[in-house]
Amino acid sequence: MLSRTASNLYWIGRYMERAEFTTRLIEATIRLSSLSGDAQAAQAWRSALAVMGEMAAFKRWGENFTPFNISRYLTLAEENPNSVRSCLHLARSNARAARTALTREAWEAINRAWLSVRGRSSPGGAQATLNMVEAIKAETRGFEGAVARMLRKEAYWFLRLGSVIERGDNTARLLDVKYYLLLPRGEEVGGALDRDQWTTILHTVSARTAYRHIYQDALKPWLVADLLVFRRELPRSLLASTAEAVELLSDLGDRSGRQGEADRLARQREREMLDTDMDAVFAKGLHQFLARFIADSSALDRAIAAQFRFG
Amino acid sequence: MASKAFDELWGTSRGRKPRQGFEPLAQWIAETPAAELDRRQQAAETAFRTLGITFNVYGDDEAAERIIPFDIVPRIFTAAEWARLSEGLEQRVWAINAFIADVYGERKILADGIVPADIVLANPQYCVQLAGAKPPHGVHAHICGIDLVRTGPDDFFVLEDNCRTPSGVSYMLENREAMLRLCPELFDIFPVRPVDTYPDLLRDTLFSVAPPDARNPVGVLLTPGHFNSAYYEHSFLADNMGIELVEGSDLEVDDDLVWMRTIDGRVRVDVIYRRIDDDFLDPLIFNRNSLLGVPGLMAAYLAGNVSLVNAPGTGIADDKAIYSYMPEIVRYYAGEEPKLPNVQTFRCREPEALSYVLDHLGELVVKLVDGSGGYGMLVGPASTAKQIEKFRAALMAEPHRYIAQPTLALSTVPTLTDSGIVPRHVDFRPFVLTGAEGMKTVPGGLTRVALPEGSLVVNSSQGGGTKDSMILLADGSG
User: Fold this and answer.
1) pTM of the predicted model, to two decimals?
2) Could you write out the three-class secondary structure of chain B?
3) Residue where a domain terminates, one of A99, A131, A150
4) Out of A2, A100, A252, closest to residue B262 by CB
């Protein structure tokens, strides 16, 4: 496979995942802000910007911090290179360049997702935004379905590799912004607002019912952290996405009989996570742990680019 | 215009009596409600858009990707019509290859005074660097798209030869797919010859001309990239041939060998089906500012280490100034009369022709010899006096840059429009493949249709559409 094609596929995976994560974040934020007073609602939207790492860029954009402006910035603003619209545009652009490596189905799913946003400039009110978010989620699910039906070969592995690297990174960012809510074991459960915050987090990683199934317990902050960091059953957890990256890299390595720096980094990260648990992470500081995870993700991303000569 | 033209379904009967053999088509049109045809046509266009079968109009931004309008009413050629056409096409393409080999080799046709030497040697399309070069297996123009027009039952003319990187074959294939899906009953009515062998034939052609010492040749399709107007076609063909679709940056030349960059390192490339113009192939030889090509590619080609399809320099054969000599060229190499005539052509470089053209601008089509895509031309009967006078000045300033042709009463075929099924003018581009083992012409081609009433301009950049072109098996020709 051409190195450029591999790079295109990897970035399709990343951008489609980022688009989906952002739509879930918007959806969860709308839910949270509708449950809260004005002050908390404003806070919820600022926090959505923080999760996406867009606080500074939003300020430069020059619009007021209103829910509508933030929602527009995250969903449709062309000026934001990480808006849902921009992600879908970039995914489609990469997909056009790697057209022959994609199945017709996978291409059509990406193209449809792009066509669904390309003519829009305003998300509208909360209900209109939710409708749009629902439509985009349906398209990204269609994309995942199409990818799942692809041959287990290079194209599939690179698409998935991009998805899981992006996925781990997103979950870590989400947790890092909300980590002050995730109090260590033994702390008292807070009021209704805290509950809503946790629910928001679970919603963003589509794990609201997963939590109940796994813990059979009421919402407890340290369990939410445990779920998002250490539970392999949850595909968006840090451990699950790390383990999947290890598997995908080894599938790629088995094919050529060669492994490299990316394999080493991914395996090392998985081993370290298996050697620790939530108590130890809280003891050393969750924020430090997450910051390290995010930095390691960038290092792994660079190692993948070098190993497969993305250039 | 339309009322006087020959209609391929109705002949000159103006809708009263279909031509012999075409009765089933007339019946199908009569029996299928227009609303149903419209529904099917829209279904086809939706499918094309979802698939991304789009083209970009040069000058527009990327957001302006458009689909070429598709017309649901097919165009039909009988087996006898096709037999005549394909013979004429292969004769012409054979002569084109002989001509290119000659002008880059011994130049006999120039020495014999059949074609004026300056028209060839001073032509911007003549690639001096290639004089004396021989491509592997001696084939230059492996893929030719010959544009034909028709004015009567037996009157086909070559309007233009396309010997560089002709496009449109993906429409031939996708239009047929759409017709099979949306109008399956037509294929019960008519025994239609399949076109889907084209990718296999193209693949065979490419690999047949690999350098002789390549044991397991690797072929690639070189595209200018996904912003190019024909990118969909490039990806479609690469996919259907099972070869890599590469951009210039994916290739590198090292010691006159061509390599592509893959996730496992470098892989040697033997055959390049290039869909990049000569000018952009190699910045070391041609356009220095081009980022599309591959530095060193021409050196690798001249060293015989890679086959380029089509070979560089073939533009000399489809230049409009050379076009007017094609009948002489065919006679010279084939030793027989051309089976497919040219459209009558006035060479404005010749004083007598120029004065005729200047006197008849209102009746003629005048074209730049180096223009394409319907740009830089005057369609006399469709122009205002002001436009004609403006063109006259340009023509008198540089007459050698122009040729002129009579406006032909192009044939029409029934076409679905907002005002129902009406006659619209068409042309036809079949594709002729030439490999090391001979020539092949897939029974089909691209029919372009001028959608506005009375229009003769079929170019997609100027509002043209496409149709499926069905060639019938012998026993179905009526």
Assistant:
1) 0.85
2) CCCCCCECCCECCCCCCCCCCCHHHHHHHHHCCHHHHHHHHHHHHHHHHHHCCCECCCCCCHHHCECCCEEEEEEEECHHHHHHHHHHHHHHHHHHHHHHHHHCCCCHHHHCCCCCHHHHHCCCCCCHHHCCCCCHHHCCCCEEEEEEEEEECCEEEEEEEECCCCCCHHHHHHHHHHHHHHCHHHHHHCCECCCCCHHHHHHHHHHHCCCCCCCCCCEEEECCCCCCCCHHHHHHHHHHHCCEEECHHHEEEECCEEEEEECCEEEECCEEEECCCHHHHCCCCCCCCCCCCCCCHHHHHHCCCCEEECCCCCHHHHCHHHHCCHHHHHHHHHCCCCCCCECCCEECCCHHHHHHHHHCCCCEEEEECCCCCCCCEEEHHHCCHHHHHHHHHHHHHCHHHEEEEECCCCCEEEEEECCEEEEEEEEEECEEEEECCEEEECCCCEEEEECCCCCCCCCHHHCEEEEEEEEECHHHCC
3) A150
4) A2
